[in-house]
């Protein structure tokens, strides 16, 4: 049941346009109304989330009305067209921030990681405005959810890849569909190894920016991050030459890779081409179970991975509860609570001699 207690009053009253507030007053108040996207964690209390959303919903109605009135107003009392344009622009930004993260302009937010034996750190990730279907320009909740579990995998089902020694420690980890790079950069920091972050050529400029932005952090944690284009199912012209040599990676990671019907087959082909053929090689995959569509895409991916001369079978799997901000603030709260499925795949050696 939702917490129906009245939220606290706003810190300061919003200006009334009929009072013709000065440019400095309007602009300063609009700056204070900036909304930062939430950084979800696996440790959020459902009660705390509901309380926070109740306060947000109460304040949002008043603030949206205020922003709408500015956008519709001629602001005729301000001294210049430049002042009016700046106020309208700032009000429009604040309005878009309240229409969901996919409607936001460029943002940079910081993602913290607690010390689980590898040292606490945080990553700054830039997310440009979403254009067309370039979903790789946004950081989805699954990347953070999986990143927070990496130390557990290294000590558990992937431990054989992290035993000290040149023959057992993966010299490089490959991330497919890196997007903004949060997962791959976190893997470099937590696993203290080299990670190659890849995505479509259109995503690479922002991905490279984030790798550069966090280079000092990654280096300080004992890791290394490299960025290169890799189009699933593409020819040599669509991938970096470093991927022409097939089956070289002992460990592949990927989070939230499926949002179209052809993605399971394309991802499967990329994994089959890049994952080493030995019995120790592993692919760690996380797929949010948002709805029946994503559940169906996961089933198809498992089927595709199990095909071919050297099938990949799911050796271990589970679901962790997490948060995702796919959608907008008007979505029902239940849509924000997502089960993040993860699976570890390895080569089927049953037919090997």
Automatic annotation (TrEMBL):
Coiled coil: none annotated. One of its GO terms (biological process) is methylation. Pfam families: Methyltransf_16 (PF10294). GO terms for cellular component: cytosol. Transmembrane segments: none annotated. Keywords: Methyltransferase, Transferase. GO terms for molecular function: S-adenosylmethionine-dependent methyltransferase activity. InterPro entries: Methyltransf_16, SAM-dependent_MTases_sf. This is Methyltransferase-domain-containing protein. It comes from Parachaetomium inaequale.
């Amino acid at each position: 049941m939702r917490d129906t207690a009245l939220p606290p009053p706003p810190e300061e009253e919003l200006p009334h346009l009929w009072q013709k507030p000065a440019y400095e007053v309007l602009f300063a108040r609009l700056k204070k109304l900036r909304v930062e996207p939430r950084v979800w964690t696996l440790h959020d209390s459902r009660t705390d989330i509901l309380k926070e959303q109740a306060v947000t919903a109460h304040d949002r109605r008043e603030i949206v009305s205020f922003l709408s009135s500015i956008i519709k107003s001629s602001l005729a009392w301000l001294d210049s067209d430049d002042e009016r344009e700046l106020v309208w622009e700032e009000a429009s930004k604040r309005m878009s921030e309240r229409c969901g993260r996919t409607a936001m302009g460029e943002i940079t937010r910081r993602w913290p990681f607690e010390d689980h034996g590898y040292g606490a750190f945080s990553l700054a990730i830039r997310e440009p405005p979403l254009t067309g279907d370039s979903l790789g320009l946004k950081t989805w909740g699954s990347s953070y959810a999986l990143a927070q579990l990496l130390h557990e995998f290294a000590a558990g089902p992937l431990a054989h890849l992290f035993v000290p020694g040149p023959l057992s420690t993966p010299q490089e980890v490959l991330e497919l569909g890196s997007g903004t790079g949060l997962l791959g950069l976190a893997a470099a920091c937590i696993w203290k190894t080299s990670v190659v972050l890849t995505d479509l050529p259109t995503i690479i400029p922002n991905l490279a920016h984030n790798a550069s932005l966090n280079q000092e952090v990654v280096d300080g944690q004992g890791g290394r991050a490299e960025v290169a284009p890799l189009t699933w199912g593409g020819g040599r012209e669509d991938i970096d030459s470093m991927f022409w040599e097939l089956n070289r990676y002992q460990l592949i990671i990927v989070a939230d890779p499926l949002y179209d019907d052809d993605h399971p087959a394309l991802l499967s082909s990329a994994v089959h081409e890049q994952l080493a053929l030995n019995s120790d090689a592993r692919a760690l995959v996380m797929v949010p179970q948002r709805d029946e569509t994503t559940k169906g895409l996961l089933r198809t991916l498992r089927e595709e991975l199990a095909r071919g001369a050297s099938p990949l079978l799911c050796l271990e799997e589970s679901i962790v509860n997490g948060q995702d901000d796919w959608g907008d603030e008007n979505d029902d709260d239940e849509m924000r609570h997502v089960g993040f499925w993860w699976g570890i795949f390895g080569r089927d050696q049953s037919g090997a001699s």
